[in-house]
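seq:
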Amino acid sequence: MEARINACLLTLKIGDITRETTDAIVNAANSGLRGGGGVDGAIHRAGGPAILEECRKIGHCPPGSAVLTAGGRLPAQYVIHAVGPIYRDGRHDEAKTLESAYRSCLVLASRHGIKSLAFPALSTGAYGYPLQQAARIALETVVSYLNTHDDIRIVHFILYNRDTYEIFKTEMQSLLST
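struct:
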């Protein structure tokens, strides 16, 4: 599925984010920037040790924030490491933190002249964020940013399976129909 938002093409796809040829891909990182499982582990494995070395130099990234490293051996030139919230019960500012993580990625992209980027579904794996709520927050945040910034030209959401894709598609259709 795709939609035009201001000057940007926003797409939803099922795939492997480590194969994306966008200027940057977004990593669902942990606050220690040490690699891990899921998307984080896949990006570190595919990108090689140079990414972890840069992450070690940065040291830490609090939830709701993002940092930038080179892409190592990835097709993408950069990796934006975003730290989303660990979902507890929805009453500990999780939505605000997740929104901030997405917005931080977009601000970094704009600041560094990144014209195209690919996001995973942040915080929905090991961090346990309910997928429908996370999809709504992700899409609302990205669409809102793109409506007021025309420097980013392509944003992909690279989703790991059909069920996740369908939830994002439903949320995107709902958001764009209002």
